[in-house]
Amino acid sequence: MSDRKPDGPDGRPLDLMLLRTFLAVHRAGSLTAGARLLGLSQPTVTGQIRALEQRLGRQLFERLPHGVTPTSVALSLAAQVADPLDQLAAVAEPTPAGARAEQPVHLGGPAELLAVRVLPALAPLVARDVALRVTTGLADDLLDGLRAGRFDLVLSAVRPRRRAVAAVPLMDEEFVLVAGSGWAEGIGALAEDGSALDDLPWVSYAEDLPIVRRYWRHVFHRRPPSRPALVVPDLRAVLAAVVAGAGITVLPRYLCAAEVEAGDLRVLHEPADAPINTIYLAHRAGATLDDHARAVREALITEARHW
Length: 307
Prior knowledge:
Elements: H1 16-28, H2 31-38, H3 42-56, E1 61-64, E2 67-70, H4 72-92, E3 105-109, H5 111-127, E4 132-136, H6 139-147, E5 153-156, E6 165-180, H7 181-185, E7 203-204, H8 210-220, E8 230-231, H9 235-243, E9 248-252, H10 253-262, E10 265-269, E11 276-284, H11 291-304
Parallel strand pairs: 3-4, 3-5, 7-8
Antiparallel strand pairs: 1-2, 5-11, 6-9, 6-10, 6-11
């Protein structure tokens, strides 16, 4: 690790505090979120960024209505200082043995995936004194929280694309078209466009039929049926309603596998190329996970091989 700091245009080394603030804002994507990560006020962070820009004689960020975007100068500077600053932080601010043993791991993700797959997989860690605090929600909201430092780890149904987030593919969820046994018996064979289903009652977790829409376009190559008969923002509730006879729906296979095996649900179609969605496990780029957060991450990656 080199202890030489980058030089300004006048040849003098740049202030490490200014560089640390710069890197936090660069990774978080906003001055406010960077301030939160550093435990500083937003005006203090704004002043430090301006001071660094004055020292360099170059603009580092373009201000947007929501956040900031780096200039080419900022991208180059971040590439130069990120690794040395991370290594320096690990040396200068070591975590004392046992000091964070009681700090909870903050985990976010989709409610149904957490309930059916994730929490059972993490139960052994909880039994060994790993404290968890779990938040459910939509991917974009959770990823915003991750960048702002509210979470250690997030399970995301969309691929994180912001530079402040690092992610690995965790699992693929396959979508299946299902109905309760009563509805399934009256449907029969499906035409290539699935038109036999258009007039049936649909159950969805959102008004715009997001999963159904994806299935229809992928399998039947057209728009899905019109408005759903029942909307409930929890796929477990969608599953329960369809089992009870409310209508038909599209669900992740892992979520309804037990009901299909028991005969409470019927899969209406088995396309050769079923639609899938990849779930990602994300953490803040450059952030150092403590022992418990690393244990949660490693357990999820290991268990996901069997999902």
